[in-house]
Amino acid sequence: xxxxxxxxxxxxxxxxxxxxxxxxxxxxxxxxxxxxxxxxxxxxxxxxxxxxxxxxxxxxxxxxxxxxxxxxxxxxxxxxxxxxxxxxxxxxxxxxxxxxxxxxxxxxxxxxxxxxxxxxxxxxxxxxxxxxxxxxxxxxxxxxxxxxxxxxxxxxxxxxxxxxxxxxxxxxxxxxxxxxxxxxxxxxxxxxxxxxxxxxxxxxxxxxxxxxxxxxxxxxxxxxxxxxxxxxxxxxxxxxxxxxx
Length: 245
Ligand code: OAD
Description:
Blueprint: H1 2-14, E1 17-22, H2 25-28, H3 53-58, H4 60-75, H5 81-92, E2 95-100, H6 106-110, E3 115-117, E4 120-127, E5 133-135, E6 154-158, H7 167-179, E7 182-186, H8 198-204, E8 208-213, E9 225-228, H9 231-239
Parallel strand pairs: 1-2, 1-7, 2-3, 7-8, 8-9
Antiparallel strand pairs: 4-5, 4-6
């Protein structure tokens, strides 16, 4: 693995246009639970049954209780060396884009700026009536919260199953996927579309795909380098270590 890590590191240094796609596994070592796999459940419920417009329509209070639980938990989490390594490599590259499926905001906290929050942000709150959206980091005393302007239900500003990726996020990501020579895919199970197809589209164009994950995923076969291990250890090894803050 050592020599592969060095070769992958060389590909990163040589890349002129680099895209990084991250998922919940990158924040796992910060203490944020992943969606699938051990530790993903909440009150014995599969998060997938909560992250839908239907679940919200049927029981907004329960869905908000889950989000409030996650917001409380994430508020106490800090970026890990994986987030830091991604923020550092961005500063070395002219053409760079981080596409994250994570809604926790940890990439931004680590210093990433050229990033697209593909599934929105857990700190964004949107009115289901007037559409007003704002960032609210504090707890809501009453759940489900209501819009101070129009009284309609507020919802988390995230993308749920069956909903569209925000057009600007999709456009920026597809443009990058069409031109990057390197895609690093880290900590995602690669089962949720459209991000699950990113690796195939870059590999098909002859670009280099590097994968970092604890386990094999559907995109492992498309990757030139596929590393099994923790993102917090492998990303600094591939991308170079960030200076201590
Ligand atoms: P998942 O929970 O599906 O997958 C997490 C992945 O991270 C798994 O493949 C794990 O093997 C891997 N993993 C866990 N810990 C790791 C570590 N320390 N280092 C490296 N890899 C690790 O999360 P996502 O792929 O992000 O969407 O899920 C995609 C989307 O499904 C989420 O954005 C969310 C969810 O439903 C919506 O809510 C729309």
